[in-house]
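Minimal example, chain plus inosinic acid.
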Amino acid sequence: MSNVAVIGSQWGDEGKGKIVDVLSREADVVVRFQGGHNAGHTLVIDGVTYKLHLLPSGIVRPGKLSIIGNGVVVDPAALLKEIETVKAQGVDINSDNLLVAENANLILPVHAFLDQEIEKARDSKGKLGTTGRGIGLCYEDKVARRGIRVCDLAHSDHLRARLENLLGHHNILLKGIGADPLSLDKVYDELMKSAEGLLEYVGVAWKRLDEAHKDGKKILFEGAQGHMLDVDHGTYPFVTSSNTVAAQAAAGSGVGSKMVGYVLGITKAYTTRVGTGPFPTEQENEAGQTLGERGHEFGTTTGRKRRCGWFDAVLVRQAVKTGGIDGIALTKLDVLDGFDELKICVGYELEGRRIDYYPASTVAQANVKPVYETISGWQETTMGARSWADLPAAAVKYVRHIEELIEAPVTLLSTSPDRDDTILMQDPFRAL
Ligand code: IMP
């Protein structure tokens, strides 16, 4: 029996929420290990829709422990608001089923303000399309060792000193953009007010995980964003500010890397991206429009329209290799129903040469031209299919061809937002 890490293998929004929810039936502990409330997971359970941003998906299931790990950046006001919203939907959230790592870094209002101002000041080519939640600014402070951590909230004098140090840095930036400097008293009071409710959930995450492991409990590591938004392996600088790969599950929650277990890459049957940056298979035409409409491609967190395009097997294969993905969960196959033909990107052309990988250089990434294979579509519906036998032959061929191209098996296939509309080929908890 192993643990499982669920990772997005494209640019996020691959449908991780549903898959995590399906797997959390079996898991005892669900852990978030990177990112913040820039993420958005939609769960549909018995017709009720839950929109989660920071809370691990296990929270909606009784008897599971949900952990927000040290690799996550936590906006206390956003977290408390989310807890209230989910509680109002009838979910019980308390210190027994939610734990926030004491060594996670806190997002302050100044991070979000500067994130938005800096993004506004970027010229159209340089805009990153951030979610404006202060994620990057908070990680910057973490790495620069001036960040405020959850555990600092318990020591008022220490917290004030830490905040003074942090404001010393940010007030220079604020002055530079013509904004008013922040007063220490105001920032301190605001933080204490929004953070008060947080303390009841704070604990030593790595210890709880170690205990759970020793007790033979199953742990599910829940990734946010996706491989191509990884700060090292993605389309830098058009990325988020954390490592989104499975290796981060260990560092971002305080477990050894061997404990991470089976790595399940969540992969949409086509490709989408929110925000700016290169996207070789983007279809700014009728096909892209159709994918967007059928797939309801609007961001959970910002409501932004997602850019849509054909499946890029080169990118997903790269995610499989550099992210250690053992198998994939293919989602939203039903969105492809009704196309006469489908295209799959199987390589790129760059400066007249054929290449089989996505280069790191921003210039090369902008200039690669996808090489497509065209394969037949299907007119039948795959929506709600619960076994291979329910799928049209052309859909099975599409899935099998993807497996070959990305060099990883399809472990799970999702055919609607409903968690029961899932074809499980192999149980990831028992796969290793
Ligand atoms: P940030 O994470 O808010 O700094 O945004 C950086 C980039 O990551 C932008 O292109 C965002 O649109 C993208 N991004 C952040 N979170 C998500 C997500 O959950 N899904 C898809 N894209 C995301």
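Residues 156-176 form the longest helix (21 residues). Residues 284 and 308 are 8 Å apart (CA to CA).
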